[in-house]
Amino acid sequence: MINTPFFKSSKTSHRTCKINLKPSSDENECGSLYQRLPICVGARVLIRRNIDQDNHVVNGTDAIIKEIVWEDSTDFLSPPTTSDDIFSELPNVINTKLPKYVELELFNGQTYKLEPQETRFNDTNNINMTRLQLPLALGYAITIHRTQCMTYSKLVIDLG
What is the dihedral of CA 41, 64, 116, 146, to 10 degrees? Predict the structure, then answer.
């Protein structure tokens, strides 16, 4: 029977082994794609990959999510609308399938349809893995290093 740190036996058989997959918790080691990405219409996001240089959809570009388009209506959950107090019935988080694409409004006013991207990487056990996710990060706050070479019409800085 195989007995290495890469495998954990699920039965006492010579044929059946369970692979213990451990993707890194650091998204930078997973092709800059988060395992979970909380987004909604109106969310400020940063693009995490160079996708379309001709249309200025590159790593570090900030945008606003204008629309989330699903493959069909069963890919997401709708909150109940019959109760007067619907918020008491809603969970804190709703897990969904990946959207077909999100429509972004870029800093220059143009819109761009961004589809989920696939990346391959090795997990902490050096096993090849694939992740499919939108190459986005929430962009409500950024460091001073990230703002270098950026132009903003308005800026708030907390010096305290």
Answer: -140
Question: Considering the entire predicted model, what is its pTM?
Answer: 0.66
Is residue 114 helix, strand or coil?
strand
The domain of 73 spans: 26-138
Is 158 among the domain residues? Answer: no
> CA separation (Å) from 13 to 7, 21, 34, 146?
13, 20, 36, 53
- CA–CA dist 63, 104 (Å, integer): 6
Tell me which of 14-18, 52-56, 57-61, 134-138 is least confident: 14-18
Q: In a 10 Å sphere around its CB, with 0-12 CB exposed, 13-18 middle and 19+ buried, how is residue 130 labelled? A: exposed
